[in-house]
TrEMBL record:
Residues 6-169 form the N-acetyltransferase domain. This is Aminotransferase class V-fold PLP-dependent enzyme. Gene3D superfamilies: 3.40.630.30, Aspartate Aminotransferase, domain 1 (3.90.1150.10), Type I PLP-dependent aspartate aminotransferase-like (Major domain) (3.40.640.10). Its cofactor is pyridoxal 5'-phosphate. It holds the Pfam family FeeM. One of its GO terms (molecular function) is transaminase activity. It comes from the Bacteria. The lineage of its organism: Bacteria, Bacillati, Bacillota, Bacilli, Bacillales. Keywords: Aminotransferase, Pyridoxal phosphate, Transferase.
Length: 536
């Protein structure tokens, strides 16, 4: 089983529900004979309109599911008289039902991770307990997760079920044991890359990059570049996409150059390293602009942007990062787009750390910058420019950063890298974003280790910034983890100055390594403290 591309989420799409009904049939008709066969090979649960389905997907295929509902009566109310008498005092229960995992994914962590998301969902809705009818043959698995049996076995057709309940405390206790087990399963010699770039890439991307280079003037290359640009446009719902040999810094130079062509004053938002870099870009191009600045990691609210535009009617464009990589702060892009529409202001975006990490819709964005070597999970070296409108060449701009020249030359006015283009083309076949609820779950791993991390589930799941106490050196901690084959971001000047380290989840990573990573950071930090105390 390839666990690198499994997505855990709450079902929301029509196709996902249709696959749920078919999986229901396979499990509860064909495998566990609880219901009668039908010609449609689908089984819709009687509580379907009330159920929330936690699912796991491999690409577009639903490979596991579990449902939860809180409305009484539960199905167990029909089978156990006075059900509440069996539950602890103060219980606010929900019922878990319809557990199904396709056979090839059963001997894995899939069930545990679905329950992990399920517990988060329940706690958000103030349920403090979950009850379940556990099929008899899986009792050991349920107990390992933390479920506790109550009442007697229930017979249903040819199957027998054990009523069980799970509390937050039971799950947390089992979580610690699970993580200890998981830590042992991570090979000590395996390199774990949690850098924001270069990121781990898929094996097929490696193969594509290793192909012999071809001429950027060959029809074969031009066809591939056309395909890459088409995939990029679809990926973010943009009208046009250009791919340039270069970095994210170069992509933002392109945007600054185009802003020299727009009339009127601009507004640049900044609350971290990369917002302030945009200000530097603008100064170097001598743009006319104001700034809306906050301290690092202090949110800039949409209401503040709207107020500024209302009181400064001369603002004609806004330039901001989407994800502030230094802290993980994620701007509310749809809300900012709405404000820009209302005030007829063009929006420009540095989306280098968000495209490929979280869903991004650039339909109404004037210009946006991205890169190949972060969330798009390919090699660094390609700058990507998205633009809404047709752009004509402008001879007042330097040739290399004249976006119109790329647009009028089918994207290839100068020498290009076929290796980088092929790798990006392949990466776009495998790429998926992280759903935002995952941000809270990822951060929780670190908070449970008593590490101070920025943000909540509104922050990007692609970058976790950890603020170390003053008596610990971020450089020393990063060096110690590097010796153990764990690569974190800590060597940039702005991180060293603030004693921060970062774990990024932008590339192809195994989610099973997350608890191990959090535990290892805590372990090495504790060892550093002990070494420091022993030296006194």
């Amino acid at each position: 089983m390839d666990s690198l591309h499994l997505i855990y989420k709450i079902a929301s799409e029509r196709d996902e529900f249709e696959q749920i009904y078919k999986l229901n049939y396979q499990t509860f008709v064909e495998e566990i004979p609880q219901h009668s066969r039908n010609e449609h090979l689908r089984l819709v649960d009687r509580f379907d309109h009330e159920n929330t389905y936690i699912i796991v997907k491999k690409k577009e295929e639903v490979v596991g599911m579990i449902s939860v509902r809180a409305n009484r009566p539960f199905s167990l109310d029909d089978k156990i008289a006075n059900l509440d008498d069996y539950l602890p005092e103060g219980a606010c229960p929900c019922e878990i039902r319809l557990l199904s995992v396709k056979e090839e994914f059963r001997k894995s962590y899939v069930f545990y991770k679905m329950v992990d998301l399920l517990v988060s969902h329940c706690l958000e809705r103030k349920y403090n307990m979950a009850i379940i009818s556990g099929v008899e043959r899986q009792l050991r698995l349920y107990k390992r997760i933390g479920f506790q049996p109550f009442a007697s076995l229930i017979e249903n057709g040819d199957a027998r079920f054990q009523p069980m309940f799970l509390t937050k405390e039971q799950f947390e206790s089992s979580t610690k044991a699970f993580r200890r087990m998981m830590n042992r399963k991570v090979p000590s010699g395996k390199l774990l890359n949690f850098l924001p770039g270069p990121v781990p890439v898929h094996k097929e991307v490696e193969k594509a990059f290793a192909m012999p280079p071809i001429s950027h003037r060959s029809q074969l290359f031009l066809n591939e570049m056309k395909e890459v640009r088409y995939k990029l446009r679809l990926y973010v719902n943009a009208n046009f996409a250009q791919v340039v040999v270069g970095t994210g810094t170069l992509a933002n130079e392109f945007i600054a150059a185009q802003l020299t062509r727009l009339p009127g004053k601009g507004l640049i938002l900044a609350n971290g390293e990369f917002g302030y870099r945009l200000i530097n870009h603008a100064r170097r191009f001598k743009l006319d602009f104001d700034t809306l600045e906050k301290a690092w990691n202090e949110p800039i609210q949409v209401e503040e942007i709207e107020s500024y535009l209302r009181n400064h009617r001369d603002i004609r464009w806004i330039w901001t990062v989407h994800c502030e990589t230094s802290t993980g702060f994620l701007y509310d892009l749809p809300a900012i787009q709405d404000v820009c529409k209302e005030y007829r202001v063009e929006l420009c975006l540095d989306a280098c750390s968000s495209v490929g990490v979280v869903p991004v819709d650039l339909q109404d964005v004037y210009l946006a910058a991205a890169v190949s070597g972060k969330g798009l999970k390919s090699y660094p070296g390609l700058a990507i420019l998205f633009h809404r409108d047709t752009i004509e060449p402008d001879e007042t701009l330097p040739r290399y950063i004249d976006l119109g020249l790329y647009h009028s030359s089918d994207g290839v006015p100068f020498t290009h890298s076929s290796n980088l283009a092929s790798a990006l083309n392949e990466a776009l076949n495998w790429n998926h974003t992280i759903d935002l609820p995952s941000a809270g779950r990822i951060r929780r791993y670190f908070k449970e280790q008593e590490l101070e991390v920025f943000g909540d589930d509104t922050y990007s799941p692609g970058v976790i910034t950890i603020c170390l106490p003053s008596d610990l050196s971020s450089r020393e901690l990063g060096d110690r983890l590097k010796e153990k084959n764990i690569l974190l971001s800590y060597e940039s000047d702005y991180l060293l100055q603030r004693n921060w380290i970062q774990a990024a989840f932008m590339g192809v990573q195994d989610p099973e390594s997350l608890p191990y990573l959090a535990a290892m950071i805590k372990q090495e930090a504790d060892l550093m403290i002990k070494d420091w105390q022993a030296a006194l």
